[in-house]
Amino acid sequence: MKSITALSCSFAFAFAATLGAQTDPGPRGGPPRSGQPLRGLSGAELQAFGAGRGVFNEIDNVKDGLGPRFNLDSCGGCHAHPDSGGSSPAVNPQVAVAVKFGAVNQAPAFIQPNGPVRVVRFKRGANGQPDGGVHNLFVITGRNDAPAGCNVQQPDFTQQNNLAFRIPTPTFGLGLIEAITDATLRGNLAANANLKRQLGIQGSLNTNGNDGTVTRFGWKAQNKSLLLFSGEAYNVEVGVTNELFPQEREENAACATNGLPESVGDIGQQTAFMRFLAPPQPAPATDSTTRGAALFTQVGCALCHTPSMTTGLAISAALSQQPVNLYSDLALHRMGQILNDGVTQGNAQGDMFRTAPLWGLGDRLFLLHDGRAKDLGDAILQHDSPGSEAHQVIVNYGGLGAAQKQDLLNFLRGL
Ligand code: HEC
Ligand code: HEC
Predict the structure, then answer these.
(1) How far does residue 170's CA lie from ligand 2's centre (Å)?
(2) What angle do CA 270, 274, 275 make, to 5 degrees?
(3) Cα of 192 to ligand 1 centre, how many Å?
(4) If both were cysteines, with which of 164, 205, 367, 414 could 379 make a disulfide (CB 3.0 to 4.6 Å apart)?
């Protein structure tokens, strides 16, 4: 027995060493290549972008509408890296906000100083029925700007198996994503049908139950527009009621201080900022990244991660009939058991996620919907578990030599 174990151990070690021959070059250094306004904006649009950035980064206190329950006190705190509008920063701001202004919140174990910003959904409610909604981490209780009688408590986050995490998606280039027509998305999904069928790739678009049009924002493509996302995020993440979401999610009268809605106009400004944010600027191509781009298509990644689409007619010239190099079909795919989060949103079931847009990957510190991966190779291998449409493509990837894999990883970190 012993010798067999030893043998299989050394074999596994050698095998891992071969696999380890390629490495993720990691996030790029240097100045951020995101966070700028789109080129070609009018003077008025540029002004709306600048003013919107201010509102996006504003810190809300209780008098501004924060809470009673919340996940952070500003949009820009979660959408921070590598610049305003982005994704999770290296230092998680949720640790500090838990005790800001005298608050006595405990940061749950899944919130770490060097881990990703996370929001939490419960898979099931107390009665065992499906839940799926966001349960806020923090309360204003104890803050020196909260009413003295306010005594709402944090939910119980100890039932690990019932928790589903999400990290922030970056918002760079989202005006372009918003301006892609539904017909373009449907046509793109229908393209390369034979190849997709051979590889077991299907995919479907998430849609709005009321009008049937395609929804495209969020990890499960659950949300229709930037304005709707802003309205919902302002109320859900920060606790600020607004013209789209006028009711508090926590209506405890002892914590209520403000007339509702607490903000009018902010969500339009936040939206203008995100809509006019330029897409991430890729690094200059090298021989290696050029080979990597070809391999990305050759093994089949590009069948879900569509490299480019074109926007339709838009009232803003900077968004009208423009290329969108997003590396996504914005469609839902079955991604297998290990990524399944047990949450249903619209047509998206537990194992279904929107193909993550890969533009800006060069700056991303945390990967996959719950931030479980930091390493690109790891994120790729997580695509393959029973039930995943990506299975055959990941097998193809596994068949590449170490130098080819390296080219592919270099290409991805150049995006
Ligand atoms: C506590 C952290 C946090 C705060 C604060 C926050 N967000 Fe987010 N944001 C997230 C997470 C997590 C997601 C992914 C949500 C999902 O798909 O379930 C997200 C997704 C988004 C998206 C979708 C992007 C895409 O690629 O589809 C938009 C738009 C957005 N947020 C805007 C905002 C705005 C505007 C605010 C401020 C009103 C805000 N967010 C505040 C964490 C946050
Ligand atoms: C069947 C469709 C499909 C195929 C094929 C596919 N992906 Fe993905 N990819 C997805 C989906 C869906 C996600 C989001 C999954 C999640 O977060 O749970 C994703 C996420 C990623 C991420 C993480 C991005 C982020 O924002 O966190 C990377 C990196 C990635 N894919 C690279 C690749 C590469 C490289 C290939 C080819 C070897 C590939 N993918 C093939 C659908 C696919």
Answers:
(1) 15
(2) 110
(3) 32
(4) 367
